[in-house]
Amino acid sequence: MTEEIKKPNILENATKHYKAQIAGEMKSFDVPEWGTKIYFRTVQNLKSETQIVELSRQGKSTEALVMSIINKARNEDGTLMFKVHDKNTFMNEVDPKIILRVASKLNGDPLPEVSEVVKN
User: Is residue 109 scored above 70 in pLDDT?
Assistant: First the structure.
């Protein structure tokens, strides 16, 4: 009788890794202008990231920044801080400099200058 060699289930390992990352401790930073602390995870699901990438590809960088805040900013208990319907308020009634600073911290990447975003 031959013993069957058990191969690792790579997809299972990948999902375990993702679940461990999203279950881990959240990072946070203060936004004094908004009177709050924003919590976030360094890992985001592909669906949310795709939405942001698509907006960027369409030349809608301002909307992409706003959607990154809506999709990533969380309360201390891990619930999302904003809803999709908050997008118009962000786009029309929130200081672009603060949006850039918040999106930059959430995305961990250097982002364009305010003047570049305002053009879009």
Answer: no
